[in-house]
Amino acid sequence: MEKETLRIELESLSKNEEFARVAVAMFMSRMDPTIEEIDDVKTAVSEAVTNGIIHGYQGKEGIIYIEVTIEDRELTVVVKDSGTGIPDIKKAMEPMYTTDATGERSGMGFSFMEAFMDQVEVWSVPGVGTRVTMKKQIGR
């Protein structure tokens, strides 16, 4: 199978999180994934997009960039924002850690991404933005 790529730009609105997860699921469907694989990827995409909207842009306008690549049996999903960035990535990836003062967020976003995907890498620079790269082998 040759390499295929889907690119999406979404406004940083909560309602666009659902569109992102469905669009990625539809694109990966050509890999003939199991329902469990689809659900895993949808959950990880949802968490990454939500992080960008809530923490990256903090309610301000911005764009969430999504790039999905299929190459052989590997699915790669990159979710980027040009928001506030993460000052301490290691701390941010700890389970239950959140910068949300309202108490509405559990701080489990990165933990869910790591649980449902084979590999998760986070790059971030304060004031520049964040890029989350997630990989998963489909149909092992």
Structure commentary:
The protein has 140 residues and is an alpha+beta fold. The mean pLDDT is 89. It has a 5-stranded antiparallel β-sheet with strand order 1-2-3-5-4, with helices on one face. The protein has 4 helices and 5 strands. It has a single domain (4-137), classed as Heat Shock Protein 90, CATH 3.30.565. 34% of the residues lie in helices and 29% in strands. It has helices at residues 15-28, 35-56, 89-92, 109-116; strands at 4-11, 63-71, 74-81, 119-125, 129-137. The longest helix has 22 residues, at 35-56. α1 packs antiparallel against α2 and α2 (35-56) runs antiparallel to α4.
* Shape call: globular
User: How large, in whole angstroms, is the Cα Rg?
Assistant: 14 Å
The CATH homologous superfamily corresponds to: Histidine kinase-like ATPase, C-terminal domain
Topology as a string of helices (H) and strands (E) = EHHEEHHEE
Low-confidence stretches: none
Tally the helices. 4
Number of strands: 5
In order across it, which strands form the biggest sheet? Answer: 1-2-3-5-4
Major sheet summary line: 5 strands, antiparallel
Q: In CATH terms, what is the architecture?
A: 2-Layer Sandwich
**Strand residue content:** 25-35%
Distance between the termini: 15 Å
Mean pLDDT figure: 89
Summarize the amount of helix as a percent range: 25-40%
CATH topology: Heat Shock Protein 90
CATH class placement: Alpha Beta
The total tally of domains equals 1
SS-derived structural category: alpha+beta
